[in-house]
Amino acid sequence: MTKNKFLSKRLACLLTSALISTPILFHTNAYAADVTVTSSGDTITAADADNYNFTGEGTIAVTNSTVDFIVSGTITTSADIQGEITVNDSGVGAAPNITTFSGTIGTSTKSLNAITIGTTLTAGSAIFNQNVFADTITIFGGDHASETSKGNFKNNVTAGNIVLDNGTGVTSLEFSGTGDQEILGIITTAATNQGTLINSNTGGTVFIQNAVGVTGARLAAITLNLDSTTLFNQPLFANIGTINGNLILTSSGSAGTGNWAFGGSSSLILGRDHATNSTALNITGNLGVTDGAKIYPSLSLLDGNTQKIIASGTVPTNAAVDATLQDNALFTYASTDVVAKTYVITATARTASAVATELGVSANVATAYIEAHKSAAAAAAANINDTAMNAFENVTSLYDKGGIALTETGDTNFAKQLAPQTDVITGSTVAAKAVTSGVQNVISTRLASLRSGDAYSTGVVTGSHMGVNSGFVQAFGSQVEQKNKGNEFGYDADTAGFAIGFDTKVPGGAVIGISYAHSDADVEGKGTGRAKNDIKTNSVSLYADYATKDGYVEGSITYGKSDNKGSRIINTAEIDPATYKSNYDSEQYSFRLFGGIPQSLGGGAFFTPFAGATISQIKADAYTETSTTTDDALRLRVAQDTVDSQVGTIGIKYHQAIKDGKTTFTPEVKLALNNEFGDRNITTTNTYQGGGASFKNSTAIERTSATAGVGLNISSDNFSFNIGYEADVREKYLGHSAQAKITAKF
């Protein structure tokens, strides 16, 4: 078939279809020239496929005169910015019927050149159910006052420009999807006071990313229906505003020349780009505010900062505007009508104690929350990173980026996660002390095993002779649980390690020795930040003991160095989860001195009162967290104060030596009371990396604890085996430690 014969056949098909009012069946889906579809049928269907593709600068023109019309399938183009769709009614002065496009129009990489609804003479009306990609979308209102042209979009729209041109009629642009919709493209008018923007989407947020109108060419009106949410990312210029849903203005400078009315279920939410003393909304007509309306001031406002709402016509009382202002956990707001019809909204920062009460968190978390907000605001203002500010907007105003309310615990959970994780900071300090204590207990047990006589739980048979030199290998471990106390989260800490040592007896009966120990500790916080720290410690100790039949004195000096690898997360506040990591060194110095006087009870049983002191110092390097989010304003630099500890201990021990030939079995029981005389708090100085001031967090150190232990020693002349268990009890704290030792003498 030649080209001319093909076109002749196509034209005959069009004419026949118009006469008999039946659907048009195309035998190809490639349009290289203009194709006009005129039909009173209700579906366009291709014979070979339900999809249509432009291969040149063609046009699909739908002219509908009697009933609503449906275009099924997708419409695509072989090249970017190619092809046009036109929709208009054939009757001059008549209200148009609706043409519905069921499929996607264009693609993200190849958009149509234009979509035109209506003409300068006739109106048109179209519904687009799927995503639309077109360089220009124009809605003409025709040439008659009764003609109303509408473009109704139920999904995302990507365009260069969306133009509303009333002509003599009326135009409207409506968004009526059931989920979030993103609208890309400058929405403008042919002249001022033309076109109405309507949001009837009640299932998600309509994100309008580009400018809507300009000062000299405002839209005639915007209408935001009940339960709708509309976010304007650029200033909005519309003469009349009927606001019954949520209106989010991320930038200052929106204006109108007509009347604006906020209904009783409406919200005006002001975003981060409202600079201090800026005008959020300037209306030269009347401003109406119905009871129940809410205004959420911008979170960019810090203490004492202001923003304004101006109206020139009839306005509500200042008290009515003041009643709409929604305080949050960080700020309270008040309106002052300092100049006639100008409402100045002032932010007043809450104190840390007030924030703690509002959020139901500790003073530490509240202080961190205040400073984290300052850091987020500074980073956003400097265009470094706005992720943190997004999070504060999401939770503090109780709406997320989709405009849907979060639970009222959203800001509380966010605050707990962004704060320095005192559960693991405290747990790491306690674990460091526990590691040193474990090594010292190993040494103490070792020294006890070298004492001769039934008065000591040595297991060494009286009269047997220890070699001049001896060595030992001993495993040890501990398990600690600190339960939550009030608003402070607890932690779990598990430690496992081993110690090896060599010692010798010197003239005069004293024993001196040296040991090395290695341990791994895992600390896991019980807070929502899921903080962890993996601590690897290497330590060396010098120790000595002197014992007579009347008593003993033992001492040790220990130095340990630890490698710390920490982490925490933020996975709330409707932002992408972020993981924060730290890597730093810490050191421990400790001196321990104990002594006891055994008292015979007969039958190989002894009661030994003992007392001692342990003096320790823990130093940790300052560190700056890394984050999976680039330039994250919620990263922390943490510098922990040196912790000085002086623990005094008094206690009693009972043991009984039971001999069986050359082997001695010695069970023992120990009870002790410990008191911390050193630092009362673990304190860190913290700084968020987006900006803001440094702040301190402190966690109290429990002063008093009790220790209970049991053990068994089995020994002969050249061999001994010892196992022991201790429990450390404090308020909502329980620590378990165990050790096992094999000793060979040579």
Q: Could you characterize the architecture of this molecule?
A:
The chain has 746 residues and is mainly β. Helix content is 13%, strand content 50%. The protein contains 7 helices and 51 strands. Strands 1-4-7-10-12-14-16-18-20-22-25-28 form a 12-stranded parallel beta sheet, with no helix packed on it. The protein has a 12-stranded parallel beta sheet with strand order 3-6-9-11-13-15-17-19-21-23-26-29. Strands 33-34-35-36-37-38-40-44-46-49-50-51 form a 12-stranded antiparallel β-barrel. Helix 3 (352-359) packs across helix 4 and helix 4 packs across helix 5 (387-396). The longest helix is centred in the middle third of the chain and has 28 residues, at 422-449. It is elongated. The model is unreliable at 1-49, 398-408 and 458-467 (pLDDT under 50).
Q: Concise description?
A:
By secondary structure, this protein is mainly beta. It has seven helices and 51 strands.
Uncertain runs with pLDDT below 50, 5 residues or more?
Answer: 1-49, 398-408, 458-467
By secondary-structure content and strand pairing, the structural class works out as mainly beta
Mean pLDDT: 86
Number of strands: 51
**Main sheet: strand order:** 1-4-7-10-12-14-16-18-20-22-25-28
**What best-fitting shape do the alpha-carbon axes yield?**
elongated
Tally of helical runs: 7
Q: State the share of residues found in helices, binned by percent.
A: 10-25%
- Tell me the fraction of residues in β-strands, as a range: over 45%
Gyration radius from CA atoms, angstroms = 39 Å
- Most strands sheet: 12 strands, parallel
What is the rounded distance between the termini? 109 Å
The quaternary structure here is: single chain
